[in-house]
């Protein structure tokens, strides 16, 4: 009969809370930098410059068709062989940004392409300036169209970030691994970790829903 | 002792692909059964079933696959079974796939117009006949592309089984890297092998999706 022992977890709960904060911080940074990479990728892909498009295509396909675990191994263990060495935490952030950038590129490209050419022409007919058109006619509706896809990708990124613990970068999962090594209450530790990740995902999802209500509450055409 | 990265090492890595494929196949088969049950429960008339399926999906889509693997791995000891990486990975990935496929297939079932259900009911078809002959065949058309897309995600997901010590493609790469210390070459090779498995499926999924969209907007 298995004896559950949650005591070491309660005793060291601050360790896990700190880990959770690190996961939130790492995910937020990866989301911001990942969004920048995604926008650049999408603009490059829709630019019509062929070699640039091929390069972005190659990046997107390679990242989307290989596991994140291999990507992080390659960045952390492989790149030092060609002179690019990073600390575990930096490698973790870089790997997450590279990973989410590939998915984000496709999502944002779809958003840009979802705006019919007629809208832009209508904007011009209303004598809107170039910047006004870009801001009100293209970007905002595009962002609204892809908002659900983008935010669920971000939540998936937060869950995936648990994998960075394998290169001993600091996050919630690695805090859990430390606690596990200290307490040997493996099942209990991972049960609590899983619940914490679930709550983090719910929290992110609630914040994204709030942002959506504030930013995209104007009436939709469809 | 560091030795050179030889053709024997490459062969060792390539042979490990079969464990990645076996694990993916087990998880996909199990996930197809579980996913069908979840999708049917999620679209059922009974509220309790719908809520159970919704909760199941939410839990498995809202937690990291890595944590699911660890929980099942250590959970085996809790229920008194010997610790076995293959069993743990197969169970965890099956549950994971059940949730994702369940959600994909729920969407596909709901995409079938409700008039189809009403017409089938008017013809006095029972639930089983209605599903088997009317709803599911139509839902399947919508479901194939995202299902193939999920298969790619599942194959990539099997790489995490290496962390609980199951020797598939990723773990084979780690073993070879520990002996040869050629991480750039070793993980490059492993990445190419994953790419070779996943890319054709991704292309297939995309082609199915375009074809389906064309069929719908005809």
Q: State the major sheet of chain A.
A: none
Head-to-tail CA distance between termini of chain A? 58 Å
Q: What's the CATH topology name of chain A? A: MetI-like fold
Classify the secondary structure makeup of chain A into a structural class: mainly alpha
Give the CA-based shape of chain B: elongated
Write down the domain tally of chain B: 1
CATH homologous superfamily identity of chain A = MetI-like
Overall description:
The complex is a heterodimer of chains A (222) and B (218). Chain A is 77% helix and 0% strand. Chain A is mostly helical. In chain A, helix 3 (50-64) packs across helix 5 and helix 6 (117-125) runs antiparallel to helix 7 (130-160). Chain A is flat. The mean pLDDT of chain A is 92. With 218 residues, chain B is mainly α. Chain B has a single domain (7-216), classed as MetI-like fold (Orthogonal Bundle). Chain B is 82% helix and 0% strand. Chain B has helices at residues 7-42, 47-61, 65-78, 85-111, 114-122, 127-157, 169-180, 183-216. Chain B starts with 6 loop residues before the first helix and ends with a helix. The model of chain B has no long low-confidence stretch (mean pLDDT 94). The chains are: A mainly alpha (222), B mainly alpha (218).
Summed up:
The complex is a heterodimer of chains A (222) and B (218). Chain A is mainly α.
Distinctive features:
A: mainly alpha, MetI-like fold, 77% helix, flat, B: mainly alpha, 82% helix
Compile the SSE list and pairings:
The complex is a heterodimer of chains A (222) and B (218).
Chain A: H1 7-11, H2 13-45, H3 50-64, H4 68-78, H5 88-113, H6 117-125, H7 130-160, H8 172-183, H9 186-215
Helix pairs in contact in A: 2-3, 2-5, 2-8, 3-5, 4-5, 5-7, 6-7, 7-9, 8-9
Chain B: H1 7-42, H2 47-61, H3 65-78, H4 85-111, H5 114-122, H6 127-157, H7 169-180, H8 183-216
């Amino acid at each position: 009969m298995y004896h559950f022992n949650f005591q070491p977890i309660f005793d060291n709960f601050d360790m896990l809370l700190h880990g959770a904060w690190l996961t939130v911080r790492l995910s937020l940074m990866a989301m911001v930098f990942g969004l920048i990479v995604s926008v650049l990728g999408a603009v490059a892909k829709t630019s019509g410059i062929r070699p640039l498009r091929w390069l972005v295509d190659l990046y997107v396909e390679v990242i989307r068709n290989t596991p994140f675990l291999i990507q992080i191994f390659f960045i952390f263990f492989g790149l030092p062989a060609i002179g690019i060495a990073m600390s575990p935490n930096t490698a973790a952030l870089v790997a997450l940004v590279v990973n989410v950038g590939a998915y984000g590129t496709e999502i944002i490209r779809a958003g840009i392409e979802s705006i019919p050419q007629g809208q832009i022409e209508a904007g011009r007919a209303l004598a809107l300036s170039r910047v006004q058109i870009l801001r009100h006619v293209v970007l905002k509706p595009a962002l609204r169209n892809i908002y659900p896809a983008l935010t669920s990708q971000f939540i998936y990124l937060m869950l995936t970030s648990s994998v960075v613990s394998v290169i001993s970068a600091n996050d919630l999962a690695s805090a859990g691994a430390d606690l596990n090594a200290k307490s040997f209450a493996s099942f209990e530790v991972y049960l609590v970790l899983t619940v914490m990740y679930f709550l983090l995902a719910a929290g992110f999802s609630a914040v994204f829903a709030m942002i959506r209500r504030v930013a995209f509450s104007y009436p939709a055409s469809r | 002792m560091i030795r050179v990265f030889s053709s024997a090492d490459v062969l060792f890595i390539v042979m490990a692909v079969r464990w990645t494929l076996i694990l993916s196949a087990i998880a996909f088969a199990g996930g197809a059964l579980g996913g069908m049950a979840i999708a049917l429960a999620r679209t059922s008339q009974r509220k309790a079933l719908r809520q159970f399926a919704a909760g199941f999906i939410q839990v498995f889509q809202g937690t990291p696959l890595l944590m699911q693997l660890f929980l099942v791995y250590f959970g085996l000891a809790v229920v008194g079974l010997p610790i076995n990486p293959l069993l743990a990975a197969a169970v965890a990935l099956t549950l994971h796939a059940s949730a994702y496929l369940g959600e994909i297939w729920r969407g596909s079932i709901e995409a079938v117009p409700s008039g189809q259900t009403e017409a089938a009911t008017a013809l006095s078809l029972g639930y089983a006949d209605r599903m088997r002959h009317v709803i599911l065949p139509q839902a399947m058309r919508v479901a194939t592309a995202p299902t193939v897309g999920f298969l790619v995600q599942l194959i990539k997901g099997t790489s995490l089984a290496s962390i609980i010590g199951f020797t598939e493609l990723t773990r084979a790469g780690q073993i070879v890297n520990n002996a040869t210390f050629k991480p750039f070459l070793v993980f490059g090779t492993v990445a190419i092998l994953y790419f070779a498995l996943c890319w054709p499926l991704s292309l297939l999924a995309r082609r199915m999706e375009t074809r389906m969209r064309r069929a719908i907007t005809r």
